[in-house]
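2024-03-11 09:14:02 DEBUG pipeline.ingest accepted 1 chain
2024-03-11 09:14:02 DEBUG pipeline.ingest length=175
2024-03-11 09:14:03 DEBUG pipeline.predict start
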Amino acid sequence: MTRTPPRPHPGLLLATLMLLGGCKTAAGLFSEPKPQDRLDGYEGSLAKAGVNTEMDWGPKQDHLLARFSALTEEHAKLQRELADEKAKNRNLENQVVSETSAGQREKSQRAQIEAQLELKNQKLREQEAMILSLRIEKAKLEQQTLLSRIDALNQVLQVGAPGTVEAAAPMPGRR
């Protein structure tokens, strides 16, 4: 029996080829640029422009720069507006807190004044009840005084003329 060598898996073979191919491509990245290459950094518009770099900007770069500048300005404007709105918000929150505390103080003062008013009304009712009871007592005393006078007059009348009855005179003009 002869043994046949195992066959490599086709996916493994493909992965190995890709790995080797990748190494060759990556090796070209680390080599020096060729002298005829236009993007070597020594040739092209940057080397010829010198200090005046406006030559480097094309219409697309000008558009991007203008857009970037506009967005930067808008961002700064929005940051200022945000800071202003935050300050307004803090001021409004402080105002709400102060108004709430003022409302609480007013409520407590109102409750205190209402309690004092209720106490004064209670005292007033008590005084009115006392005045009424004193008036009742006064009326009872006046009634007793009148009854005792009537009794005294009846006694005087009975002692002064025991059998005489006064004749009532007719009223003038009524006949």
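2024-03-11 09:14:41 DEBUG pipeline.report The radius of gyration is 61 Å.
2024-03-11 09:14:41 DEBUG pipeline.predict end
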